[in-house]
Amino acid sequence: MAGSARRLRVGLTGGIGSGKSTAAAVLAGLGAVVVDADAVAREVVEPGRPALTDIEERFGADVVAPDGSLDRAALGRHVFADAGALRDLEAITHPAIWARTAEIVAATPEDAVVVHDMPLVVEKGMVGEYHLVLVVGASEATRLRRLQADRGMSEADARARIGAQADDDARRRAADVWLDNEGTPAALEAAVRQVWHRRIEPYAVNLRTGTRSRLVAPVLSPPDPGWPDAAARLLARVRHAVGDAAVTLDHIGSTAVPGLPAKDVVDLQVGVRSLAAADEQAFVEGMAAMGLVRPPGEWADSGKDGTPWPKRFHGSTDPGRVAHVHVREVGSPGWEFALLFRDWLRAVPDERDRYAALKTDLAARVPGIEEYAEAKEPWFDDAWQRAHAWARSTGWAGPGPA
Fold first, then answer.
1. C-alpha–C-alpha distance, residues 71 and 93, integer Å
2. Can you point out the beta strands (E) in 92-225?
3. What residues contact 243, with CB distance under 8 A and at least 6 apart?
């Protein structure tokens, strides 16, 4: 979804009967500009629109009603159970929908919070296009009851509609925020308001001002099974921001090692052909537009060969997800060690546990983040040798391109 670099873009989704429309209305009342994907899809096929003309040319005059509007039932008969016909229809409507969506977003204030009310965020793989994805969730039983009571659907029809959409596991993986809607509309409204004030509003400010989120103390969290999904969403956003300039994309650091306690900071590595590519204006601005800003200053790792290992660094502006993006040249010592260290700890539980003990001890007695990181360096110097010995013994060669 196109728009200014300083507009916060929120994807709002949820299965049929989940209560997504209720959440959208609350967000609109709070000041968000809500772009309803279904409304846009209807608008682009109104009488006189080029898309309707193209549909008539492709499928015949019977898909247009006597009043000149699209006869959806007739069109449905053409595309039902005909994958080729459906692809032809989407080839007509999708470009029109995205172009109209871009027009609507471009007309909003540059500091707007734009909420894209989009049923198929998960199904279309669109997580990377938004700064934040909100999913309204409810159990299948609750949704079935609502669809029958509120929309008059038969149970069979409701089950078919639910079954045609993504399941809750896929939605949870896509969700930066899960809004549970098993209760009353008032409870959902309260939850939406809380997310607006605690996360969306400050995120919008951070995005406009280029302020990254940071931890101020080395507080460790228990292993969180949600860390890999958070990393996957962020990596999708990096890909959307810089495209093929990212040769490799990886989740690294402690949150990438199952069973390892860690600071609640997701570390990512972007492999580039050269650091000069990461200094290109399109790369820096693309990352910033996606909420991943580059702080001022020079950045380098403390190289285990006695030399600095240069890199570039970006931090997330999302107040609800501290994330560090390390940009390194593919094949460089720093790039390789980040991947080797992760894979070594994943493969050797004893080493993982030794590292966990070190982290726990330092977090208990070192007050600041910088001091904590510096205090780990002597352990890393020795771990570098052990990790390379493991790599030689196992034939580890690292991953390929993303």
1. 15
2. 113-117, 132-137, 177-180, 220-221
3. none
Token pair recorded at residue 345? 């700890």
Note the pLDDT tens digit of each residue in 350-381. Answer: 999 999 999 999 888 887 888 888 888 888 88
CA 38 centroid distance within chain: 22
Mean pLDDT of 325-334: 96
Q: How far apart are CA 333 and CA 336, in angstroms?
A: 5
Kindly state the DSSP code that residue 197 receives in the 8-state scheme: I
The DSSP code for 64 is B
Q: Are strands 308-316 and 323-329 parallel, antiparallel or unpaired?
A: antiparallel
3-state secondary structure of 101: helix
Determine the 3-state secondary structure of 193 from DSSP.
helix
Secondary structure of 294-342 in the HEC alphabet?
CCCCCEEEECCCCCEEEEEEEEECCCCCCEEEEEEECCCHHHHHHHHHH
Q: Where are the alpha helices (DSSP H) in 210-326?
A: 227-242, 275-278, 281-289
